[in-house]
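User: Show me sequence and structure for the first protein, then do the same for the second.

Assistant: Starting with the first protein.
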Amino acid sequence: MRAPPRRWPFCDAPGAGPPTASPVGGVISTAGDEPDRYRRTGSAPHTFGVDPADLNEVIETFLEEHEWPVFSLRLAGASRMLIIMRNFPDEGGVDYVLDPGTGGNAIPLAALEGHFRGPALAWPELIAAAQLPDPDHAPAERLLLLLPVCADRDRPADATEIVAAALSAVGARSDTHQVGDELLSSPRYWARSCEWTTTDDALICLGTHAYRSLDGELTRSDRRLITNAFRQTS
């Protein structure tokens, strides 16, 4: 297992120089943003009126080994969430890392892969982060990009409605509630019943695979920095 990069923005590929970052300025289509996640729902291509075969070119772009696509989402202060398509041969995945904006190391939050880590954020953080000012991504786009690494036992009863509305906002044509429920109920990585608590002014995940746990690799300072990054500014 290769850990998500600690040195922003990328670690070096084995036997090669660092891959080139390819910033993704806007959401191409939600069905193609994170191909594995959204195709896995089964209903996603249909809800966007897309033939699954037509996604192949987009998926190939996201799996490019020498030019890794990267989404960059502004968070509170100078921090950013980087969503990195880590396309090492036979060792690929999607890394969610926090660039604190201080010139220091990036902080790993989640890894979507066989040896998964996460979740990265709780439901209230997802909602707050989606609404933060961002000239490149609308709130609905931000919510859908962050949703794959959100898990929270205490999410509200209208969570499916919120996700369905976001899907409609980015162009979904039908079955938005079905897709929203599929996205929220996916059991592949962490349990939907993941619990969170607050300790030392930082939100802590009680899940067994979380970076944001008390016995994980992150320092107390890291955990506080992450909590502050997801807070909505007034």
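Switching to the second protein now.
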Amino acid sequence: MVTTLSAQLAGFMAEPHGYAPELAEELVAAYRPRLTAITPDRLEVPRLDVESVGRALLGVHALTQAPPLLALYKGAAAQGEFQLDNLDHLKALALILLHAYRQADAAGAFTSGAKLSAALDKESAEVESRLQKVCEHFFGDDPELGPVLRRLSAGTGYLDRAYDLLGYADIYQARHDVVSKDPIHYRATDLADARRLASQILAVLGAALSPRAREAYDLLQRAWTLAKPLYVEVRELGLRFLRYDPQREARFPSRPELHHRRPSRRTSTALPAGSFLGDTAPGRAPRRRERPSGLVVPRQAQGSSSMSEGTRGFTS
């Protein structure tokens, strides 16, 4: 069956579930216990295009409902490799994610008139500048990191700066053996300082949120914290089932640069093939600064966290 799956899916037209506020509200109520059970230290900051990702998740769910593919998921569940209900959980969380984003947007969670102190403004700008120079020196033409650096190139706004600091810090952590060789701009303390300063910036901006905006954005973080590892699990099985399908990466898009995509309500909701969050060609051409997905309620900014924690809440 696996060897012929590509041919069996050739004529299948996935029809993603549409977003409806009333249904989303019901799902929020149903999932409230799971969402509120997430401890603050596990919350993920959704630094991505929430609208596009939510719709992409719904598209993936629709694909998993193709009879030949669904049969394989059921087989994996029978073998104890997968919790079949997680397919429905993925759809539900995608709808909650879209709903939470729209509520947060309506509540003004993505705009802030907060100002940084002069000291925080100065130090964070200096650290970002050094990180950018080191990363672009080594990875400007890198096929994987080049597109990331293009998105992280200097922009405007404190929120942009906070997310840029976190993005550069992730690169520093992943490629420390390379960046540490820079004799001019590299500083051993910049990785920790970048995350500390980003956390401080986000705390200042988050503190300016109204109670309604804070509540809506908290829901957004919780929905994303559960949805992200769930998608990874569904995708890993899907890629295994479709290992002979040349379109498998397009059917189950990857998650490159998960932490660095910035959202924009004006961007297309369609995603390029092979990229879960979308991607752009490497290079140093100026980019349009996309609208960040929101502020983080004050907490310690961190790098990538475990991808298995959220999924555990859905297995029995």
